Input
Amino acid sequence: MKNIIIVFILLSSAISTAQDKYPQSQKELEEKIIALDSKAFEMYNTCNLEQFSTFFTEDLEFYHDKAGYSKGLDKLIESMRNYICNDLNKKVLRKPLTNTFKVYPLEGYGAILTGEHEFYMVENNSEKKTGTAKFTHVWLLIDGTWKMSRILSYDHKAEE
Output
C-alpha cells in the first residue's frame, strides 16, 4: 500500500509539472503564444483536424467578416472538413505575417494575439495568393493548458 501511495505522489507531481504556468515576462508570453499559434495553424495547413481541434475550447466563438458568426468547436471542425480540407488536391494555405504579430497579456489567465495573414490556394503543387486578412486570437490558460477561445477574422481583401 505504501508503494502505491508513493507511485501516486510521483505521478501527481509529474502531471502537475507538465502543465503550463502563466509566463513570467512579456517575452516568455510572446514566445509561448506565437509558438502555440504556429503549431495550431500547422495543423490547419496540413488538415490534421484531430490535432487542430486540441488547440480550442469547446465553446469557441468565431467571428468572420465574410462568413459570419459560429459557436462551438464542432462547428469549426465541420467547416474545416467541408470547405478547407474537402479536397487535398486543391487546398487553402494560411501564411502568417509574423512581423505584424502583437501579444497582449490578460494577466494571469490568457493573452490576445493580433496580426495579419495571407491566404493561398495550392493546386498541383502551385501556390497562388488569394488574399489577406487581419486576425485576433484570444488564448486562455485553462487548468494548465493553453486553448484558443475566440477568433476574429476581419478586413479580408482579395488579391487583385
The two ends are 71 Å apart (CA to CA). The first helix runs from residue 2 to 18.
